[in-house]
Amino acid sequence: MGMFDYISCEMDLPRLPERKEGKQTITSFPFKTDHQFQTKGLANALIEYKIGKDKILYEKKVEYEERELTEEEKKDRDSGGFWSPMWVMEEKSHEWVKDDFTGYIRFYDLLDDVDSTHDAWVDYSVHVKNGEVQGDVQLTEYRLEDNTESKANTKKWKEKAKARKEYEKKWRYKYCFKYCNRLVVWTFRKLRRIHEWTGKLVSWKVERWLKF
Q1: Fewer CB within 10 A of the end CB, N or C, for the chain?
Q2: Is it the case that residue 193 has pLDDT exceeding 70?
Q3: Contacts of 152 (CB under 8 A, 6+ apart)
């Protein structure tokens, strides 16, 4: 899967189609002006862009700084193994700079639960010339997608996560199995540095089987 960028739009977006569910009319679900869509029409480098009310395309220029994790954050990182870094890069400052892009930008997102059984795929398009929007934003696709299976899978995953959380509270995990898991993670991480691609495929399966 390729990379993408984030983009928000302060211009007015076309209203989404209304539809009926029984006797109820399902109204449109407009996005907020700071909502971040995805787009593959720009740099494809996880950069943030925005289309301002002034119909100008801007790129977010960010300056970062390194910060050491707090003790609580270190504990959370350490729970996955011994290899977790003890620092993080955070935004120090940023500014919005006009981008001189020319072409069409498609941006899109999935709306959850537009009714009891559907999500909706929403796709917009806008024409930009030298960083200036030409005309209005167009709604290029609005597609309903059945979400009953995904809801069932989400419910199943939440139940498993809850059971796992309860299991990790038990004394045998807190004082024994947790440290066994860390040893397994550390050992297989070392092995993957030695073996080639075929060894990696096997080691992941064996590692999951060995962990509690």
Answers
A1: N
A2: no
A3: none
